[in-house]
Amino acid sequence: MDVGNHRPVSVLPILSKVLEKGIINQISPHLDNLFHPSVSVFRKGYSSETVLIKMVESIKRSLDKGNIVYGVLMNLSWAFDCVSHKLLIAKFRVYGVSVSTCDE
Question: Full-prediction pTM beyond 0.85?
Fold first, then answer.
């Protein structure tokens, strides 16, 4: 019921969207090397649907084998809002993202 918990669909100016696209194009190759193959986030050709399909298929296989299936679901949509930008940039540098990309 708190209005502060809801984000507008898009309040970003067009220039920031173009900048965001440029940044993701630069860091995507680095992220692909870091993530486990089953992780779909920030990968071209993957989406939340990809994750749901993998999850449903895994549940079906387990149930077919007679296993009991449990699930823990979390909403981490605000996780990056809590991360220090300086810490995030430092982590990018450790993982090999170029200094020019990380310049503040």
Answer: no
